[in-house]
TrEMBL record:
It holds the Pfam family MAPEG. Keywords: Membrane, Transmembrane, Transmembrane helix. This is Microsomal glutathione S-transferase 3. It is found in: Membrane. It comes from the Eukaryota. The keyword Zinc-finger does not apply. Gene3D superfamilies: Membrane associated eicosanoid/glutathione metabolism-like domain. Its main location: membrane. It is a multi-pass membrane protein. PANTHER family: GLUTATHIONE S-TRANSFERASE 3, MITOCHONDRIAL, MICROSOMAL GLUTATHIONE S-TRANSFERASE. The keyword Membrane applies.
């Protein structure tokens, strides 16, 4: 299969324009990365200590969660952080690519994603063990806010794909 970029020269790539508002995209991406570190420090610093979960254990057992509400909250915080990091790098990558075409729109979508992730984290870590059995926590903590982050996330993925396609086509035409 032929390389679609084979006809491009380094000079073509060097001529790519970066919009002045791209710094907003970089700032939003940096905040997303810092938020991940903040969640990680909170888990290790306060949630783990309150739950009395020793290293190297990643989660409390079900028995610990039934007896100790802090252990259940620790598990929720761990799972929330894991879910965040699973989505973080595709999100930041999409922001960095799509931001070359639409820096303001990407910044707004990135901030919306971060706000939804924060709300999700707060809701998810405020559930009680008994709520899970009755699925009461799922209505808000796992139901409403995922839509709040999936919409901006998938919109950004779409914008990144269309931006990449447009850039390749422009470079090929040059």
């Amino acid at each position: 299969m032929a390389n679609p970029m084979s006809g491009l020269h380094n000079a073509d790539l060097a001529m790519m324009r970066i919009p002045s508002e791209y710094s907003l995209v970089l700032l939003t991406s940096g905040i997303a990365l810092a938020f991940s570190s903040g969640l990680g420090m909170t888990i290790g610093g306060s949630y783990r200590k309150r739950a009395n979960i020793q290293y190297p254990f990643l989660y409390a057992s079900e028995e610990q969660c039934k007896k100790n509400p802090a252990a259940f909250t620790f598990n929720c915080a761990q799972r929330c952080h894991a879910n965040y990091t699973e989505n973080l790098f595709p999100m930041v990558g999409s922001m960095l690519i799509a931001g070359l075409d639409n820096p303001r729109r990407v910044t707004v979508l990135g901030i919306a994603w971060l706000v939804a992730r924060y709300i999700y984290w707060r809701a998810y870590t405020s559930m009680k063990y008994e709520d899970v059995a009755r699925m009461e926590g799922a209505r808000f903590g796992r139901g409403l806010t995922p839509m709040g982050w999936w919409i901006p996330q998938w919109t950004l993925h779409y914008l990144a794909i269309t931006s990449m396609f447009r850039m390749v086509m422009q470079l090929k035409a040059a």
